[in-house]
UniProtKB/TrEMBL annotation:
Superkingdom of source: Bacteria
Catalysis: reaction(s): [thioredoxin]-dithiol + NADP(+) = [thioredoxin]-disulfide + NADPH + H(+)
Keywords: Flavoprotein, Oxidoreductase
Organism name: Geodermatophilus obscurus (strain ATCC 25078 / DSM 43160 / JCM 3152 / CCUG 61914 / KCC A-0152 / KCTC 9177 / NBRC 13315 / NRRL B-3577 / G-20)
GO molecular function: thioredoxin-disulfide reductase (NADPH) activity
UniProt name for this protein: Thioredoxin-disulfide reductase
FAD/NAD(P)-binding domain residues: 244-551
Length: 564
């Protein structure tokens, strides 16, 4: 049975979100229903059906009524229909619903089942898999279901502890705040002051200076500076100077890994970041090949877990505070902060990562925040619901962004300079992108122009190797092109390659190595006691797992240096 995507209803439904389970085996379905009702019936409706046709009919009715569906679970085979087929149809009706295949415990580890699951994920037919619940109370089942519901809540901007941002326009300082919040893995929502929700939030406030930030505890910041936000969060570096065993510059995966291992091993640790928590990893809506997360994990969720882990071990954090200067003084490295703070460290780990290169097209740079975004696919996706969007880039982050945006947008065009996706993208992502029904891949192509009246409405594409150009409609442009390391602030004594990446260990020049008076440790920069880890380092592998590994390895060498 095929379905037609439902049109967005004029009036959304007001019922509780729905959890649906579909299985033609009565006993198995009863066990799933018992678990769902016992845990979630207070906050969700639960509906369990025994046929694919009944499930699709019910889902079509729900879509027409404007109701919300949070999660659909389906057995491996329902009648003569694979559960993956049903879950694939769900995406057309409810693009944001989480979809999971119920598999038998005895099938975990079976090659045939693994092939089915991976194929279905690659083709975009399912989001997750979960082992069927077993009596009396299956906490592993509920842990999985809870994680699915959290992902759904975040996609709906309904996650707990959400920061509300209210601005008069999409661009300017309002966009800067959204960008920072998007990069720091914090749930947030943006509202125009004239919208219904914006008016509700502003009710009773009187005259305000925009943009506003309404914190989860109810406090309000009016047109806040970065340092005011940092002070409100209690994460400032004071000007009188403090001393640490270890200071980590950068709070992406590499920096967070170094913080966890450094703090857990007894080092007095501080992490400083010019933005917030998570770095570029927060642009990844689903990392499926990260060790220990068989169902995948979002970059934001991974960053939040690592932050909490490091915090419990005793690491301190200072957000929205750029480091502007690094210098050596006696046996310490001194770091100066843009807002006046100073810290000294016995050892420093540079984990500032890299960001996407600028496109350099003036007409599009003028629309940043108003349809043009660098990264930000995870945070800005709701803005492009039902629209035509373009993603530029050929690496994993671009593939992940295209797949995530495809859940919101009418159509996603992935523009790649290379001749094929396989040049820079993992095989599992290439398969997923190629199988997605509303993603079009344009290889050998680049964006050369575009524009719009206050918001992007078109782009101009150039087909490389010819003089041919094409104007296309576009409501959103998400740019993920190459990597530019955050190293402009570093002094000349920190050696870098021609692209700005930090040289370390065996890659240092002969002059730098001779100046040490000892062999530098493998991740050490040209400044003794200063190491580099993750994407900022010359020769690093641009993967989350690699950055995490280098962050942990850096601490091993920190101990060696502190012991000498």
């Amino acid at each position: 049975m095929s379905v037609t995507p439902a049109r967005r209803p004029a009036q959304p439904g007001t019922s509780l979100p729905l959890l649906m389970a579909v299985d033609d085996h009565p006993d198995r379905l009863a066990k799933v229903e018992r678990e769902l009702r016992s845990r979630y019936e207070r906050d969700y409706r639960v509906r369990c059906l025994s046929s694919v046709d009944d499930a699709l009919t019910a889902l079509e009715d729900l879509a027409t009524a404007g109701e919300q569906v949070a999660l659909v679970l389906a057995g491996e085979v329902i009648g003569d229909t694979p559960g993956t087929t049903l879950l694939g149809e769900v995406r057309q009706l409810f693009p944001h619903a989480e979809r999971a295949l119920l598999i038998a415990n005895s099938h975990v580890g079976a090659p045939d089942t693994a092939d089915v699951v991976l194929e279905a994920i690659s083709r975009g037919r399912i989001d997750h898999w979960v082992v069927r619940p077993a009596p009396p109370r299956d906490e592993q089942f509920h842990q999985a279901v809870a994680s699915f519901l959290l992902e759904w809540a975040e996609s709906q901007r309904a996650a707990p502890h959400t920061v509300e941002v209210v601005g008069e326009t999409w661009s300017g300082r309002a966009y800067e705040l959204r960008e920072v919040l998007g990069r720091c893995a914090l749930p947030h929502r943006f509202h125009l002051a004239g919208s219904d929700e914006g008016q509700r939030l502003l009710d009773g406030m009187g005259e305000c200076r925009f943009p506003l930030m309404i914190m989860p505890d109810g406090s309000v910041l009016q047109d806040p500076t970065d340092i005011e936000i940092a002070r409100a969060a209690g994460t400032t570096v004071e000007p009188h100077g403090e001393s640490y065993d270890l200071v980590i510059v950068g709070c992406g995966p590499g920096g967070l890994s170094a913080a966890v291992y450094g703090a857990s091993e007894g080092l007095r640790t501080l992490v400083i970041d010019s933005g917030g928590l998570g770095g570029q990893a927060t642009s990844s809506s689903s990392i499926r090949n990260y060790l220990g997360f068989p169902r995948g994990v979002s970059g934001g969720n991974l960053a939040r877990r690592a932050y909490e882990q490091a915090w419990v071990f005793g690491a301190r954090f200072a957000f929205m505070q750029p480091v502007t200067r690094l210098r050596r003084e006696r046996d310490a490295t001194v770091l100066e902060i843009a807002h006046g703070g100073v810290v000294a460290a016995r050892a420093v780990v540079l984990a500032t990562g890299a960001s996407y290169r600028r496109l350099g097209v003036p007409s599009l740079e003028a629309l940043i925040g108003a349809g043009v975004f660098y990264g930000a696919a995870a945070s800005e996706a709701p803005l492009v619901s039902g629209e035509e969007v373009v993603v530029v880039g050929g690496a994993n982050s671009a593939g992940q962004a295209a797949l995530h945006l495809a859940r919101w947008a009418k159509r996603v065009t992935l523009v790649v300079r290379a001749a094929s996706l396989t040049a820079g993208m993992s095989h599992y992502l290439v398969r997923a992108v190629e199988e997605a029904p509303n993603i079009e891949v344009r290889t050998g192509t680049e964006v050369v122009d575009g524009g719009g009246d206050g918001w992007l409405d078109h782009l101009v594409l150039h087909h490389r190797g010819s003089a041919e150009v094409e104007r296309v409609d576009a409501y959103g442009l998400f740019l993920m092109i190459g990597a530019r390391p955050h190293t402009d602030w570093l002094p000349p004594i920190v050696e870098r390659d021609a692209d700005g990446f930090v040289m370390t260990g065996p890659d240092l020049s002969d002059d730098a190595r001779r100046a040490f008076g000892r062999p530098p440790v493998p991740l050490e920069t040209s400044v003794p006691g200063v190491l580099a880890a993750g994407d900022v380092r010359h020769g690093s592998v641009k993967r989350v797992a690699s950055a995490v590994g280098e962050g942990s390895i850096a601490i091993r060498y920190v101990h060696r240096l502190l012991a000498t």
